[in-house]
Amino acid sequence: EGALGQGTAPWAVSSAMFFTRGNASRGLHLGYSALCNQVWVTLANHYLQSISIDWEHFYLHEQRNLTEDVLGMQIDKDLRQSRSDLYGGSDVPQFHNALKRLLLAYAHWNGRICYCQGFIIPAAVILMVMERDEGDALKVLVYLLDKVLPANYFANNLSALTVDVAIFHDLLKIKLPELSQHLDRLCTAARKGSDERCRLPVTSVTTMQWFLTLFTSCFPKETILRVWDAILFEGSEVLLRVALALWTQLGEWIKKCQSLEELSQWLSQEMMETKLMDCSELMQAVYSMATFPFPQVVELREKYRLLPFQAKVAASSCHLKETQCKRKGSNDRDGGCPRAQNPQDCRDTARNEKRKGNCNMTKIVQATVGDNVLQHQSLYSTEQMATHPATLKQQYSKLTKRQQQNQCLTPRHGSNDSSSPGTPLRFKKSKVINRFLGGKKLKNSSKSNRVHHTPSPRVHHTPSPRVHQTPSPRTPQSTQKEQKNKITVPWCSQKRVPRKGLTRNLKVRSGCSDTVGLLEDQNDGGKTENVKVDDPIHIVMEESRKSSQLPREIETNYNEPLAIQLYEKEVDNLAGVGHLFKTLQIGEANDSLMAAESSNKPGVYVCSVELRKDQFRAKNFTAHSDMKTNLMNNIPLVHLSGKSFGTQNLALHGSCSNIQISPFNK
Amino acid sequence: MAYAYLFKYIIIGDTGVGKSCLLLQFTDKRFQPVHDLTIGVEFGARMITIDGKQIKLQIWDTAGQESFRSITRSYYRGAAGALLVYDITRRDTFNHLTTWLEDARQHSNSNMVIMLIGNKSDLESRREVKKDEGEAFAREHGLIFMETSAKTASNVEEAFINTAREIYEKIQEGVFDINNEANGIKIGPQHAATNASHSGGHGGQQAGGGCC
């Protein structure tokens, strides 16, 4: 029992009780499902509250727009082929109908992930646990897919999932060296091939299957529930823990296999039919194998995070975030403004950002194999670094000109108390802000046009006029209209939540998007490259868990590319961004130079906000930081077709109006 | 079990065309009308004989859904043969062949033998793609073509075996570098021993080594 109650969440008590009860009543799992029901829904509700979604509105009104279409037919077909009926009880057809509605509703909710065959069974399990309450089931599914699992786990070519598999491969080496060596010996021949990319280790194939189905493919119901409890409580690292526990168990048998073929055969046929592990033993192993968060997982995620794909920092790996925060936070504090940073640091970090930008699947696959990844990256990064600062400079000077043309800005005075709870969002400010959008030309307007005319049927369902707010040239008047319209959107994040955490969140968001924009920009091809940033929502949720909130915010807001530009520019421009940083609580407000500058240039702050946004567009930022960010900004965006990523740029407008600009007082 | 060669295959094609059923029919000689969805990748294996040589086919069955495309891509390169499957009762699965083929060509080694398969030939009444069209497509793109039925097992053996024969011939011609495993071919572990012990040993022209 010592392994229980590891969760430090507010619900830790219930969590501990939960597991204790589960352990104590081995075999008496009758009530377990009911408990899951309550706890999962509570978790999901908590999440939905934290992102200030008018869920009822979505669920009651948006759902009506769901129609039978190609996706519906596909789901029908898949359901027949799935084993979801195992969870359906007596009346399977009804269960299938409910399941189909659930999957369609999720696809509608999150157009980016939409639907993946991988989550039929997970959805079926949830529906079963929720006793077919589709509303609750949808909430839990949203919580699971949007929040608990790393972003892009089921989207963007399953990139986060692939990363997790790669991480697991490394983890196996660390934690089960003997087994890993044995597997390597079996794979030796396979590795002789000159092309490493084709050598997906057989362990990865199996592990990937587990991850794709969230272990529903290899466990009986009761074990699934226990495992999922842990996942929903402790975060996605539990996936890795469970996989590790399973391989530990399998190891005994695997060691008897003498060849890769034998192993493959055995894995594919025997394993799925064997009852792999006793449920309680498994959970005991999962909880006792390491502290939360799993130190090695944290390290590995960090490692892969710096690789070209955006490995997702899982919800659970707060430790990682903290470490980063401390590092970057201290940098910021030392200087008080980004300029004071060591330029080499800036470049180095920018290079890392570059690497992240170079996200394509081939490399991810290479990484999955775990070979030669770093070499590849360094090649790419040095190539592209050459043009990077020059481009940035150019853009920056353009933007500076625009800034100068727009000096009629709201004067800035007041303190940095932008996080004060209860401060209402000031939409009037956005009018000023959006002046900058007037006449703004995109580098790649074709892209935005395409977005603008996206023939996605979902666009029509969208009640929000934001669909039309592509970052295309516009007049200030039209911008104002749109701003007004935005306010009337009934159920998106315009709900004014005076919670401290949330207001911080809104600020944090703009910082996130910035980096993301620059990252995305470097992605080759117009593919659906989605970059996850640390989830601001998670930050809010964690407030109760962690006292060190500020460093994390600093981390999230800090923007290296911007810092580089700043480094290249004159002091007066720096001042503006410095204020922004201060306002966003990034740097300390103790830089006297900055303070002096700011008094002379009252409107610069707004400029800099706009500057950051303009940069996205100017650089053809096909954007969106993350579903979660979008959810906060603007729910209707969620309904846009997964392909029209540019439209999600619109979220920027949302964030533009949502940002607290409280230091500005008329 | 000893084998002379191991060929790695990959089965690709749209979701629901019958990839897994083909594999099941080939490996287990049975048909499962409602087959479980393939999530990710699965594999099967079977021994066949070509020219008196034992050849092991290791077959990777992939998920057809678009989301899994990136995962399946990573299996192309290690394959010596690919079965590109469409459903003769669904025109769209035929229309997507070009995409699949591009994908396969791009990510595989250039010598990979690709067999085009029009599956579900037992459902003649619901046919949407004529046999001629399949043949024409195959001719145009230099593929081998066959219509099969995983349900009735018609042509299933042939499809796998003909592909293996093609690969085998390419090995004989020296097109494939059998020592490079990236080609999806592996020399059996006991191949040398087999040759020595078998009275009618089938030519010892293969280079040794390269085994695990």
Automatic annotation (TrEMBL), chain A:
Residues 30-235 form the Rab-GAP TBC domain. Pfam families: DUF4682, RabGAP-TBC. GO terms for cellular component: endoplasmic reticulum. SMART domains: TBC. Residues 328-352, 395-487 are annotated as: Disordered. Residues 395-409, 467-480 have a biased composition (Polar residues). This is Rab-GAP TBC domain-containing protein. It comes from Scyliorhinus torazame (Cloudy catshark). The lineage of its organism: Eukaryota, Metazoa, Chordata, Craniata, Vertebrata.
TrEMBL record, chain B:
It is a lipid-anchor. Keywords: ER-Golgi transport, Golgi apparatus, GTP-binding, Lipoprotein, Membrane, Nucleotide-binding, Prenylation, Protein transport, Transport. One of its GO terms (biological process) is vesicle-mediated transport. GO terms for molecular function: GTP binding; GTPase activity. Residues 191-212 are annotated as: Disordered. It is found in: Cytoplasmic vesicle, Secretory vesicle, Acrosome; Endoplasmic reticulum membrane; Golgi apparatus membrane. It comes from Scyliorhinus torazame. Residues 200-212 have a biased composition (Gly residues). Belongs to the small GTPase superfamily. Rab family. This is Ras-related protein Rab-2A.
